[in-house]
Amino acid sequence: MIVKYKYSVDGDLRFQNDLMFEFKGRSYEFKTDEQDFLTEIVVSVKAEADKYAPQIMPLTDDVAKYHIHIKDEPTSVFIKEETRNLEGILSLFGLDEVDLTYPEISWIPENEEEKAKIHMPKFKAGINQDKPLSELLPPDLMARAIMASYDSFDWQIPFTFYRKARVDYKNGWFLEACYDYFFLLEYLFADGKFKTNEVKKNFKAAPELQAAIKQVLNDKSITQYLQTISQKKYDEIVNGKTAEEISDFFVDLRGKIHHQSKKHKKGWHPANQQDFKFEAELFANVCFNLMMKAANDLMFSKDVDVKAIKCMQKVSAA
């Protein structure tokens, strides 16, 4: 049985798609578009169908009809890391990114016996890109947002950090989301300080920040979701902690992600975004509470008089 890992590629690297390479038991193929821009890297290896063919088993409960069991063949983790190395080297020639998180995996039988053992030909996971069908934003809120935007330049930078962090999170760029969320807090509350103890002191002295953290700690739905991401991190970072201890954690995290060294083999990896999902989720909820209060204060200020703005139905052209 042949197992193929197909990785999507972004960037400006051009290559010819009629070549393939074999090395150390791996086969490498390259897919391109009509302009020869590289779009996919496909790495293939041989594996035993008896041990590593995907299985689909029927279920009798009401939750799901089938259970899909995919067992990684022995080289899968090495192929991922080798392809990450290749991604770095090819970045010198125009490659931007290889999607190593969500490859398409195919299982190709080499005979009829193996064909009977492979229950599905391919599989690909990914981020759900469907947009949630939330309620329409009320016209009153849109009017207030427009009016508040007319004179809220002091809030432009923190709202920009919040927006960027939200986009990072949605795309699975959790490390970048942590950066942007922290910069938001630093901009609002650090008062230009950068030394750890000084920033911690200022964060603790910020009632708005402490209140936003307390909202998260008191929200059972949020704390339960954090536990589904990582029970271990929840116990270490959140469980039984005060709001001040959480704000200290944010500052310590800043120190952790601002430094790198090849001497520290267990340091964070810039490509392992999933490692920071818990921290990004904690940041996201705190900053949402903080910025929603700021937005409400702006939109429902005594200076915002909705009678001063006109709202009318558009008339379509005949």
Describe the structure.
- There is one protein chain.
- This protein is an alpha+beta fold and 318 residues long.
- Helix content is 45%, strand content 16%.
- It is built from twelve helices and nine strands.
- It has helices at 49-52, 76-90, 112-117, 139-149, 156-170, 174-189, 196-204, 207-217, 220-229, 231-238, 243-257, 277-299, and strands at residues 2-11, 20-23, 26-32, 38-46, 55-58, 66-69, 95-98, 104-108, 122-124.
- Strands 1, 2, 3, 4, 7, 8 and 9 form a seven-stranded antiparallel beta sheet that branches. Strands 5-6 form a two-stranded antiparallel sheet.
- A hairpin with a 5-residue loop joins strand 3 and strand 4.
- The radius of gyration is 25 Å and the shape is globular.
- The N and C termini lie far apart (64 Å).
- The mean pLDDT is 88.
Blueprint of the fold:
Blueprint: E1 2-11, E2 20-23, E3 26-32, E4 38-46, H1 49-52, E5 55-58, E6 66-69, H2 76-90, E7 95-98, E8 104-108, H3 112-117, E9 122-124, H4 139-149, H5 156-170, H6 174-189, H7 196-204, H8 207-217, H9 220-229, H10 231-238, H11 243-257, H12 277-299
Antiparallel strand pairs: 1-4, 1-7, 1-8, 2-3, 3-4, 5-6, 8-9
